[in-house]
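Note to self: user wants both folds in one dump. Writing first protein now.
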Amino acid sequence: MANNLPNIFGFSPLKGGSATQEEPEGERTECLVCALDLREDDTYLGYKICPRCRFHYSMSAGERIESLVDSNSFREINRSLISLDPLSFASAKPYNSRIFQDQQRTGLTEAALTGTASIAGTRVMLIVLDFGFMGGTMGCAVGEKIALTFERATKMGLPTVAIITSGGTRIQEGALSLMQMAKTTVAANRLNQAGIPLITVLANPATGQAYGSFANLADIILAEPGAIVGFSSLRVIERASDLPLPLESHTAESHLRHGMLDAVVQRTELRAVLGVLLDLLETRYKLSNFDEGIGYVTGIPRPQAWESVQLSRHQSRPTAADYMSRIFGQFVELHGDRSYGDDPTVISGLGQIAGQTVAVIGQQRVSLSTGDAGSESRTAPEGFRKAQRAMNLAAKFSLPLVTFVDTTGPDLSEAAEERGLGNTVANTMALMSGLESPTISVVIGQAGSGGALAFGVADRVLMLEHAIYTSVSPEEAAEVIFQDASRAEEAATSMRLTARDCLDLGIIDQVVAEPPNGAHSDPDEAARLLHRAMVSELSALQSMTQKKLERDRYKKYRSMGEYSSRIRVKIAKEVNSLQNLVRAGWERLPRKRRSQPAPEYTIEQIMKNGSLYGVDD
């Protein structure tokens, strides 16, 4: 089916690379899509949205600013920059005349309107491209205005919001127009390197040079519903295709499904969403240090291994989304891996815990066929790349990172391998292990193999009382060891997979109690207990220097599998038994054979040898 969206702009963006007004738009009297009477409708008058079908009509740069910023807060900058026909471009209508015509009609000096403003109380730099001025294309003046705005934002430390309505190239400025992609990119890089937030909003249309440069370098990318989005214009795509394009081809919704956007946001909600994001990215509060030990849960009885396996798989057990909604305030979910897709088994975003902004990643149990909550799910390469985006945000803005681990393992399909499964697992693990920010990982259900570990290389690893941590499932282990999957319960006991077992082995740092009968019996209480433990750990981590954090994290994982203090205690018990056995055997030898005392083996000797069974008889 062809994409036959109505021409709501009154412009032709592809005629000579610029826009020409075909008819004055003015205020519409009825919706072009559903024919609703729009006269005196507040939603249409304020936001240019049909209240019935929610179709988003075009807005000028001035109208967008008025709908987004706090009252009377916008102050324009760089207004004097205008295009001067650098190539003396020859056409039926002189380039300077077209520029002057659009200046008269729009009241703008160029296609970009830049300045300072405040959004929901946060001061920002603002860049707004106006499609009504030469199709919102980036000539030299537009590129210069955008670069100057980025530079000023970097100098002043102000977050930047860019609203993109642009299409095609400014043909009248030739290769100089093309070079504005590089100019705005290097300026945006400076902003990013300074650790300053950049948020872009893709409106209708958002194509061409602006989309292919600074717009896609943002920390957060939002889009309006139904917006035409992509590097090439819809008309170019249609010309290159032998078949009619699908209805939603090249739309914001299609890009969201393919992992290129964080969210599609209604224009009426955009100011509130931007306000929350700016607040989260600008917050610099830190938790004060709690008293040592608060949040630690002691005296938890050791459950049977198979009981924990069953409870960790309970259909009603709280998921990552359940804990996120109960623990974090102002949580904003971010979608996509900016590469291929949006894995529903991974949720990522920004939120607040006890006033502290944190980056959050959660492995969500969903059925890949239905999308509904399920007992198991496997993380795809897109999920690992999505997690990497959240980790990079944590690194850029010095935010603590919290992960919720709950997966039976990675997606082991051939398609996942072809999309780089091993590479994404390794890189996710490497990125998390090298973060300069405090990290906390919580095992809330099943932690299966590398799919779990990639999200669990943290400064502090917490584990709910009835969660499990395994290299393979008990059924798989029973199949390999006993050639009988029905002996999974027996295998589970030997695998030492419970939270208490993992604590004894030094794999985790704390066991968090669940309500009686398991977390599913009272999700609110389970979240309260976990919240308390997380706040205690986070406050303790934030009292440490970055150097100590990194040193302790390296030491922690470097020593995994060595004989730690916990294992030394267990070895000591076996050493004592061994010594008693040796003495008893020595006493039974004939006196003439006992010319020397019975041999004594130290723990260090046995640990150096690596095994109790390696000691000579």
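First done. Writing the second protein, which came from a different request thread.
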Amino acid sequence: MAESFSELFEESMNTVEMEPGSIVTGTVVDIDSEVVVIHAGLKSEGVIPRSQFVTESGEFEIEIGDQVKVAMEVVDDGWGATRLSREKARRAECWEMLEDAFENGKAIKGLLNGRVKGGFTVDINDIRAFLPGSLVDIRPLRETTHLEGKTLEFKVIKLDQRRNNVVVSRRAVLEDENSAEREELLASLQEGQRMNGIVKNLTDYGAFVDLGGIDGLLHITDMAWRRIRHPSEMVNVGDEVEIKILRFDREKNRVSLGMKQLGDDPWVNLSRRYPTRTRVQAVVTNLTDYGCFAEIEEGVEGLVHVSEMDWTNKNIHPSRVVAVGDQIEVMILDIDEERRRISLGIKQCRENPWDEFAFRYSKGQRITGHIKSITDFGIFIGLDGGIDGLVYLSDISWNEPGETAVRRYSKGEELETVILAIDAERERISLGIKQLDQNAFIDYTDTNDRGSIVEGTVLSVQPNEAVIELTEGVEGTLKVSEISVDRVEDARTELKEGQSVTVKIINVDRKNRYIGVSIKAKEQDDERANLREHRTREAERRGPTTLGDLIKRQMDRQTDASD
């Protein structure tokens, strides 16, 4: 019997690989609070920490009598004990499983648990594998949060145990799963067909929808008739949506989908529902630097250009007038159904201050306002209703250049003007300052027309002319050639400022408020009058002597009368 036992023992020793790292099968012979005792057919039993038999879920997985695989670390540690490892055996089992999956193309399960550069890490039992980002799905995914932390199926596409390198692919599994469904689906797809799908991924330009074996693109412009900024306003990853097949390219297996096409196009017959000049309620949906977009009904947006927001401020920023979400009244200005564009106006729903001004005021009325700005070409005056009137430089003064006269005015100053013209359609109001004195000029020239002899005072003298004040607010111009019968080279040699003079009015231009006067003409009139008087006295003294004298006297009288 001893001989038989010895033979059996030797045989058992020969069947067990005694090298460290070898995987052997042992029997659980004892379990306590800290260790598990395994008999693996060796001279002594091995002890393994209890923690190596706890699963990821925290459960203790063995009982006494169970057969387990363990890795041999040390056959005899010098104290007669054998050291075994369950973790190393489990890892070796995992590598065997990976090798089998790699060689036979089998799918394995793993936990996608973290991002790394270029992809993700996947835990397969105790081995960490790499999942490239391009192999997560059949199509590139922008968002993967719905997959992270989940146990998924993968295929091993690269395996190197010596370098501890494992690369897996989820796309390969999906392609295998979808191949049969895909072929069946591709054969049944038709343009115009309605069906349901699951949103797989979102991008800035749309959403990819799984139709059951093939993905279709739902472009952002085909999600709704109204304007949307991002697909997330309409759908989320994982949503089941109803869509319509718009286009299907069988050669490239590309499917274009639409959601808005499930309903009627709101742009059809839009002009009939909203004739030009119609006022409607709208909701502001978006702001830009050049205006705002407003929705007049679901799926129909129009543009309110910045120039159509305010009557008086053409460059106002839209954010100072409206905000996103505001409900506003707008007017339909134009509808282009073919290009799907609507022009709207906000200011047209308010009273036009230019029309109101034209109704309240008329040409020739006097009006007061404050100077808003002074430019190279005139003065802008703020008027009622927030509108501006313009005094051109040429309408500031009768007597001096506008460039000089404008220097007497400053911004903010209150100023009285005369309305010269109102053009409400072109939004222009012309004002004048010098026209405030126009009545004095007219009154004077009505009384003192051309040929009148008047008195005046020299206001200023230049070499070639002098300015004569004829009455308050009315001036005449005395050219140097009109000072005397004798030639005068420089008016300053004959006239002084403040000097009183008697002149004859020789020219009146009421349109330009110009009066030309002459001392020379007045003196010539005086000489002719004296000559006539002298002739008259001489004739009366001599009396008529002949018939010829009588005829000559009569002719002289006629000449005098004509002068």
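Dump finished. Worth passing along: The first strand starts at residue 23 and ends at 31.
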